[in-house]
Write a structure and sequence with these properties.
heterodimer; A: 234 residues; mainly alpha; 73% helix; B: 144 residues; alpha+beta; Immunoglobulin-like; 2 domains; 5-stranded antiparallel β-sheet; 4-stranded antiparallel β-sheet; 9 strands
Chain lengths: 234, 144
């Protein structure tokens, strides 16, 4: 086999014919399917031991991290940086105030009691916020550093990739209707801010604070204890 | 992204899908055995306006008595243990002893056609789930 023939054969391999766009779309679908498998199949059928739920989640994280490495993405590009923390926070501040105001108003109009300990009744507020930051960081990492970046690979920077990222975030909270609405709105804001100032710490801060405010202000029945997937039904 | 990295990513995506399919398959099989007892055997022999009779055995634990529930016209009617004297079941080698029959007193029913179903109750190992498995076939009868 001469070198030209070898090159031609190599180029005809399936991997060589898949474009970066299709590969990015495939990656999005793969991670979304892992989360849906965990939410809808494993958490419901695994019985009391929920360890099996960790399998698709771990596989998703392996894929995400390997994808970063294979694509040569740096921590800075992913948003693991501090230099743009304040500019990112500045972009987030106004939507956070507006959404908090709306949540407080809805809570007031519906007669719900404002309870800052509703999320984790037995824990200090500082601990609740720290927990919210940690959980928010994890979600924002998957949502922005992976989903948003891959959505940008498919649709480019701008409204479409922002909306797709937000839509994915909302779909992952199915079938909790109000949580889907909230996560879609939050997803739009966070994806928009990430595309301008990629900073995961600011997004995680916003995610933690907003979850705490919404849970504290809105009637508990509205969010159904943030349950999603099959767990939503009880 | 170069073609080598792209090929690795494709392989990773395919491997991940295969592993997830295997996990789902494994969980589905485990779920089936947790919610279903494939060793339940039994027959609903007769049903009329006075009683519903039959037998039920758990072949994996032949000396225990199966809990059975009666539904008439898809409504729960009664629960009982299949612990009544049925030597014929033993003689037919369907049970290890004579005590696997059930007898329900039929609740008061309106005149007309009715359907009786008897289900064996299966609990999973932790007792967190209870599922019902139909014993034999539904039995249709009339009340005048």
């Amino acid at each position: 086999m001469n070198p030209t023939e070898a090159t031609r054969l190599k180029e005809s391999e399936p991997a060589a014919t898949i474009t970066d766009r299709s590969l990015a779309a495939w990656e999005i679908v793969s991670v979304v399917s892992s989360v849906l498998i965990a939410e809808w199949i494993l958490s419901a059928s695994a019985g009391r031991s929920k360890l099996v739920v960790a399998i698709p989640v771990t596989l998703a994280f392996v894929l995400i991290i390997c994808s970063h490495v294979l694509r040569g993405e740096t921590a800075r590009e992913l948003g693991l940086r501090l230099d743009n923390f304040l500019p990112a926070l500045r972009l987030l501040l106004l939507p956070m105030i507006v959404i908090s105001g709306i949540a407080l108003l809805i809570g007031f109009l519906s007669g719900a009691r404002l309870d800052f300990f509703r999320w984790h009744a037995e824990r200090l507020i500082v601990f609740q916020l720290a927990l919210g930051f940690g959980w928010g960081f994890l979600q924002q990492y998957v949502l922005q550093s992976f989903m948003n970046r891959r959505a940008q690979s498919v649709w480019g920077q701008g409204a479409v990739s922002v909306l797709v990222t937000a839509l994915i975030f909302a779909v992952l909270h199915f079938p909790n209707p109000w949580l889907m609405v909230i996560t879609f709105v939050g997803g739009v804001v966070w994806a928009f801010v990430y595309q301008r100032q990629p900073n995961l710490f600011a997004l995680a801060f916003s995610h933690g604070v907003m979850t705490w405010v919404l849970v504290s202000a809105l009637p508990p029945a509205l969010l159904n204890h943030l349950r999603i997937g099959l767990k939503y039904f009880g | 992204m170069n073609s080598k990295a792209r090929a690795r990513l494709v392989h990773l995506l395919i491997s991940k899908s295969i592993m997830e399919a295997l996990v789902i398959g494994g969980v589905a099989v485990a779920f089936f055995f947790a919610t279903t007892n494939p060793y339940f055997r039994g027959v609903l022999d007769a049903a009329d306006k006075t009683s519903v009779t039959g037998w039920a055995v758990d072949e994996s634990r032949p000396y225990t008595r199966v809990e059975v529930q009666l539904f008439i016209d898809d409504r729960f009617a009664a629960t009982a243990a299949a612990d009544q004297f049925r030597p014929d079941v033993h003689q037919a080698k369907r049970a290890e002893d004579d005590w696997h029959g059930f007898v329900f007193t039929t609740p008061r029913l309106a005149a007309g056609k009715h359907e009786a179903r008897v289900y064996a109750v299966h609990s999973n190992s932790s007792g967190a789930r209870k599922t019902l498995q139909l014993v034999g076939k539904p039995y249709r009868f009339s009340v005048e």
